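= Paired protein data =
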Amino acid sequence: MKKIPKESKGDIVHKIVKGGLAGVPFGGGLVAEFFELVIKPPYTKRLKGWMESVYEDLKKLKDKDESFNIEDLAKNEMFTTTILHATQVAIRNHQKEKLESLKNAVLNSTSPNAPEEDLQLMFLNWVDDLTTWHLRILKFFDSPEIWVNKSNIKIPDWVEASPIRVFFHVYPQLKDQKTFFDLLIQDLADLKELLSEEKLRSPMKKMAYLRVSHTTNLGKQFIRFITSPIESKNKNQTK
């Protein structure tokens, strides 16, 4: 005889929400059906995909670091807080870059060198608040040369160029969206203090416009926190 599976808390919450919607007047039954057919499938898919992705990378992290023990994470209160917080943000997002940043933050929270607890939560909120363009801009101006090499884009042999000119060569789709681009820069430089805007528009000699970093110390901490520790370990091992 097959054992009847017990309802999980998620199942119970789903029934409560659906039941509550069914009681809403003026088409409540249709609202409940909308929840069942439109909201539940992507929600369940996102949650499942997110947790599987985090677990797979935790296993990869364990393979790269023998001292790392996944079971010990159950005793790590900050890790629990981080993954729960990141999961809430992940379910609200579908963009791959933001999901990767959230997952990397969860992985980096397991490190003994992880940022201070409140700083971790602040960084997670920033991943939620910032757009993918914010993240691309910040990573690009942190290390233009690495980003250009990673993108396999050839930079013209300019004698002089501003860092922003190089950026527009890599991302020409923003070249004609000056207002939007300026707002992105303002967010990163003024509101979050992650980017130093001072020299972005100034012409620089050849190679300087690729090799000068324009992120603040806080910006560099944020980037490290949302960068894969697995890739970093792989690079270190191949040197």
